[in-house]
Specification:
mainly alpha; two-stranded antiparallel sheet; about 10% strand; elongated
Length: about 190
Amino acid sequence: MQNAPHNVRSEFWKWQHASITFEQVKSLSEFLVNERIEQPHPLHIPLMTALHTLYGKPLKQRKEVRVGEDIVPSEFKDIHASLITMRDKIHAHTDVDGPTTATNESLNKIVAFVSNGNVRFAVSVIFPRNIQVEKIRDLADTLSRKTWYHAEKIWEKQMKGVYVKDGEYEVNLSENASEFLRPLSL
């Protein structure tokens, strides 16, 4: 099997992981829009939580495999910032001092609905509307293609002309071995 330095394998892993993850965000965004999944659909909140946490994964990794925010095109900076804030302050962590409205009201509230003496509690959350989810899809598509390009450059340089036998492999992130791919071990 072809050998490569640890830093090259880590760099490839970073870009490939990001590309796959952004592609998942794109697919999830398309699903939400196409199926018209909005409040009060029972899957709306779990799918929105998944969308926000998936989006942040490549950007919130440990330093050596984290994608820098400089890959976000300028036309998407606002939606990117919103996704990261929502991920950090609402979906991955619920911070009491989380994001606020234009009138400085917290978005992270426990609200009570009272009807005929019965009380039901819920967490108040604001979500992007379908038109914004379409923009998230476009951002995720752009980032998936951009990160795939970087991964593909490394793959071509390291693996050009190398025959890999049929099988299942993983990108080797071990510092104690130098092979680019190794047989998958679960």
